[in-house]
Amino acid sequence: MTPPPFHIEGATRPSRWLITCDHAANHVPDWVSGGDLGIAPADMARHIAFDVGAAGLTRQLARIMDAPAILSHFSRLVIDPNRGEDDPTLLMRLYDGTVIPANKHADDAERERRLARLHRPYHAALGELADRHADRCICAIHSFTPQLRGRPPRPWQVGILYSHHDARLGPAMVQACRDQGWVTGENQPYTGHLQGDSIDRHALSRNRPNMLIEIRNDLIATPEGQAEWAVRLAPVIAATLAASGL
Fold it and tell me: How far is CA 71 from CA 56, 68, 122, 141, in A?
């Protein structure tokens, strides 16, 4: 039997928070090009295939916060669950200098097949889990590489992303992280709003309080780093929501 394209942990935990991890895995299902996208194992182990360390951080954080968590179980290179269905980067053919051979000639039928078997079931499960709490808040966990090829180093330890459509928690979380002494980017290293992404779909469209946390992946590459940052982040997230009065 084909495993589901997501994992859910602690579905009945009582917290308002739902912790999500869109890029948890570098898994390629067997039915996608025989389970091989045609790139080197070293590339499949780096940030282009998944968010290094994010899954472990998500699990640890969710346990500490007594919150449910949902994690994807397919590589972002197969199809990106943090993109809308009409986003041109939904199915990447080139990423950070690496050509993805299995995607190079993927046609509309192949795109639809991956949407139907991976992307849509993941979002259906995320939506159902979010709906279980009347006052749900969503915290999305991601990680970023310290440096893209040919680009300047990224100095931040933490990036807090938020949309201009909802600044209820984002700026306060930025300041809270800086108060901890962490080098924190505000809508860095990425923009905080992307039409059709997971936060847009499951938080903004439902007026749910939300934040997206990016951790530099060298800080959470090990279980010890993941545990350390989970312990650091949990009280800051909780205090930021409490102070907001939401």
Answer: 10, 10, 9, 10
The per-residue pLDDT of the chain, averaged, comes to 95
Other C-beta atoms closer than 10 Å to the C-beta of 208 total 19
For 236, half-sphere exposure in the C-beta direction (CA atoms, 13 angstrom radius) is 24
Evaluate whether 91 touches 103 at the Cβ level (below 8 Å): yes
Question: Reduced to 3 states, what is the DSSP secondary structure of residue 165?
Answer: coil
Domain residue ranges in the chain? 6-244
Q: Could you tell me the fold of the domain covering 6-244? A: Aminopeptidase (3.40.630)
188-230 pLDDT, tens digit each: 998 888 899 999 999 999 999 999 999 999 999 999 999 999 9
Dihedral angle over CA of 56, 59, 65, 69, nearest 10: 130
CA distance 130 to 236: 22
Name residue, tokens 């709003």.
193
Q: Which residues face 98 on adjacent strands?
A: 95
What pTM was computed for the model? 0.96
What is the 8-class DSSP label of residue 53? T
CA-based nearest residue to 68, from 113, 128, 143: 128
